[in-house]
Amino acid sequence: MPFRQWMRTGLGGLGWRPADFWSATLTEFFEAINGHNEAQGGGEDSTTAPSVDEVAALVAKYG
After folding, report:
1. Which pLDDT belongs to residue 32?
2. Angle at the Cα of 58 (from 55 to 62), degrees rounded to 5?
3. In whole angstroms, what is the distance from residue 18 CA to residue 3 CA?
4. What is the pLDDT of residues 11-39, one digit of tens each?
5. What is the distance of C-alpha 13 from the center of its chain?
6. Residue 35 DSSP label
7. What is the rounded CA–CA span in Å between residue 19 and residue 7?
């Protein structure tokens, strides 16, 4: 499990203290991330694949 990456997210991104990070369950941790992302304007499905028309427009523009 990528604990170091999760720690960077918890401590740096969420501003948690180390004790907060280590006492949180995985569910609490990931729900906190989701809540933080929503508060910053990002939704859970903010990364969707481009449509066929969007790809065609990019290919036409950039080759």
Report:
1. 95
2. 145
3. 12
4. 999 999 999 999 999 999 999 999 999 99
5. 10
6. H
7. 11
